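Researcher: We plan to redesign the surface later, but first we want a full-length starting point. Tokens attached.
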């Protein structure tokens, strides 16, 4: 359910979101209820015959959890693999989250908070900061205000989904012990690897390539023939 260019412009032109459910709605252009109605009406092509994986980095890991939880609640087939990177598990106690809430920060303090996420210094120059600071405030508010709810009772505290986790060697905030917290969300296999790069590794082409190859090599059959990876 990708956005077209015009839809993306429309999302950017409207008020920014500070709630994960709102982000779900904007990124899919559907509400959760509309998405579920589509699935339940047979709008997909035999989902049990179309295996898929879920990949989330940073706050995207918590959005991936919410999506998987929603699928479990509605009896929709779960992914063949779940890949999380650069963020603690969603049930981490608020006092242990490796960041500070931005709500009461002045601009200088907020910029320092951004630096803790390896944000490039060029962002803090004008006119860049004027352009992006509001969006970044809303982005940070998403995980500042997130409230965890456990999986449905009929699923149990965990999901039977093999998991891969990635920690970045130069990530200033999210460390190995934060990624290890995800282990309790699966009753299947769990593997954690350290990769080069910082929290925003995807701007570093060699680090991004190594991260991606590490994921492709772990995908279950028949997603990627090994010959296609290198």
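Model: Full-length starting sequence:
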């Amino acid at each position: 359910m990708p956005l077209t260019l015009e839809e993306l412009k429309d999302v950017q032109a409207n008020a920014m979101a500070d709630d994960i459910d709102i982000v779900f709605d904007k990124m899919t252009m559907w509400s959760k209820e509309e998405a579920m109605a589509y699935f339940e009406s047979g709008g997909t092509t035999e989902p049990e015959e179309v295996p898929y994986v879920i990949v989330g980095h940073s706050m995207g890991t918590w959005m991936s959890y919410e999506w998987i939880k929603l699928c479990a609640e509605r009896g929709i087939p779960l992914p063949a693999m779940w890949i999380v990177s650069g963020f603690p598990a969603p049930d981490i106690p608020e006092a242990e989250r490796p960041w500070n809430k931005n709500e009461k920060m002045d601009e200088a303090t907020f910029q320092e908070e951004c630096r803790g996420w390896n944000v490039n210094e060029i962002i803090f120059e004008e006119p860049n900061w004027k352009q992006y600071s509001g969006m970044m405030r809303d982005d940070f508010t998403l995980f500042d205000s997130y409230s965890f709810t456990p999986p449905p009772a009929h699923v149990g505290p965990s999901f039977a989904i093999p998991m891969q986790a990635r920690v970045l060697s130069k990530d200033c905030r999210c460390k190995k012990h934060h990624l290890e917290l995800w282990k309790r969300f699966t009753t299947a296999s769990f593997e954690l690897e350290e990769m080069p790069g910082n929290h925003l590794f995807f701007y570093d082409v060699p680090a991004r390539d190594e991260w991606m190859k590490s994921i492709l090599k772990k995908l279950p059959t028949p997603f990627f023939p090994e010959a296609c990876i290198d």
